[in-house]
Amino acid sequence: MPSSPSASAASPQTGLRRTEPGDTSGTAGSSGTGPSGAAGPSGAAGPSGAAGPSWAAARLFLPLIALCTAVTAANIYLAAPLLPLIARDMGSTPSAVAWLASVAQLGYAAGLLFFAPLGDSVNRRRLVAVLSLVATGALLAAAASAGTGALAGAVLVASAATVVPQLLVPLVAERAPADRRARHVAAVIGGLFTGIVAARVLGGLAGQAFGWRAVFVGAAVLTAVLGLATAYILPVERRRRRGPLFAGLVAIPGLVRRSPDLWRACVRQAGMYGAWSALWTSLALLLTEDEGYGMTTAAAGLFGLFGLAASVVAPLAGGLVDRFGAAKVVRSAYALAALSVPLFWLGGQAMAALCAAAVLVHAALVASHVANQTLALTTTSAPATANTAYVVAGFAGGALASALAGPAFGHWGWGGVCAVAGAWLALGWTATAVRPAR
Question: 319 by DSSP, 3-state: which?
């Protein structure tokens, strides 16, 4: 179970929990148990009856979670670089199937609402295994789909089941030392953005070479292997659920209302993620259409390598949050994102500006994400439920912005997409000014 408010007070500046003297519940590598009742690497069982992992499993814990996060994050963005190939196979145009990217994000948001809050009350090991198998089956169904309707349905289910990282991030935060918590969270977020880059780069290359259906089959295999491996190394939790199964879902509105820090993190990340999503999910259209740069799908996929900036920035951002606080990091991230939007607009005609903008927007997104998610995880006594509210807000903002970016590109071209991104950033920042911190 999560730590009680009395065990770890929230810092008014950053929202990070201050570990009280003698409290080692959040220290990775310590014997005994963390706040969730999971045993430490010593293998001792905690009060909740959780059996500890072996020494080898403890060493693999954070790296394997980061790798699993990379694969599952890739599933959400798998369709984006493949849109031109899917459109050609379905007898349509890329802009007409751009809505598939929004379906994936909406499915992920729905899965977060229903499944991620269960991390506070049920056995995460069993839930991770079941969701991994469901996502695997849906990805295989997507590969076999004959039309856009069936493909959209399969992508929706696969994305809804791809919430494993958000079940595990609260566990990572609970096990981390208090003074390195943001850096541990950043390691998982680094895996997430590595998966996004892999989806664009490897997905585009593999799609060009073997077809888009083969990409979905490969993703299904990786999801099954890494999902089950991650479930295997998790501690065996014997939790006693209290109240209805989806009580965490019902508790989300009240939790956000009572926590100004959580509310601010949700809104600001929705704005940031919406701006990034509008630009990044539409980028394949600019790069591959004749009115744009006329690249092949494989060449356009290589452009995603600029997203590796996010993987480099993640550990740096974690250290900055631990040292200076979340608020300063988020302000700096918004400034970077605001600078990237006019560069993206210039990138419609100048490749150098497009490259620079891609680096800036990824650095801004990951820095904001590390700061806001650390704040969300540590500002309440129900981290899994708070994390659900945070990630759902972000993905809902991203899905809506993506849905608007497709028509904007069709009517006004790349400039319309940049306008959507700029509007999302402005909304995300100004909306939080109406509710001052307590």
Answer: helix
